Amino acid sequence: MSLRVIAIDGPAASGKSSTAALVARRLGWAHLDSGALYRAITLAVLDNLGETAGEKARERGKGKGETCGAQQVVSLAEGLPVRLVLVDDQFRPEVAGVDVAQAIRSERVTQRVTQRVSEIAAIPEVRHWVNVQQRDAVQGHSRGVVVDGRDIGTVVFPDAPLKVFLTASPEERARRRLAERGGGGGGDAELRREADVLEARDRADSTRAVAPLRAAADAVVLDTTRLSLEQQVQAVVALARTRLPG
After folding, report:
1. Euclidean distance between CA atoms 122 and 131, whole angstroms
2. Please, what is the end-to-end C-alpha distance for the chain in angstroms?
3. 157-178 burial, b for 16+ CB within 10 Å, e for fewer?
4. Which residue, among 6, 2, 5, 38, has the nearest Cα to 19 in the 3D structure?
5. 24 alpha-carbon distance from chain centroid
6. Hey, which residues does 147 pair with through a beta bridge?
7. What is the mean pLDDT of each run of 10 residues along the chain (246 residues)?
């Protein structure tokens, strides 16, 4: 059976998840947000291993005995477990049997998780574990899956028939992120602070040793700075119907 995956990658707040979810709905496919799984693991680590566990595991990975801290994180994810569950064509993250799809997007959790998710995501053993979960999920879905993240087209599904890399200016991404949170009342200063946070995340993601953020060589790069969400969705759906008919 041919691989029926649309890989959508891009930096934080580029519109990946919103676009991917709507593209999947238009095509009648399932949607998998890899970022939600990383957030779920990070939340599990913070709640069970402490606030600095991710940093310690990453540092151990640079020297002898490197698998100790990293394996602790993976064992936690397997033991709780942290997993993906398909509900109404949406793969949702669960931690210890609890749906955390909404919790990991709440303001309280987002503030905690955002500070640490890059550390957790930079651990090779964690990335391998997440990649296995994603591949298993896709194998079990016959119609097709739209997967979004930061290394979907480069590492997780390098043979995906359609790869899209969404991007936008840091200022536009900051404006979108603030709008999601109901913020933006702080004017230019608040916008600049948020843009700085996103640019720092971009640097961390694009310079990490394992699966750095970058567009696949055969990806369609779509700058969404001046595009509405609907225009983004239409562009990807048009590509999908050309590359993946039927």
Report:
1. 13
2. 14
3. beebbbbbbbbbebbbbbbbbb
4. 6
5. 16
6. 7, 32
7. 89 93 97 95 91 61 56 96 95 97 82 81 93 93 93 97 96 91 80 93 88 96 96 97 86
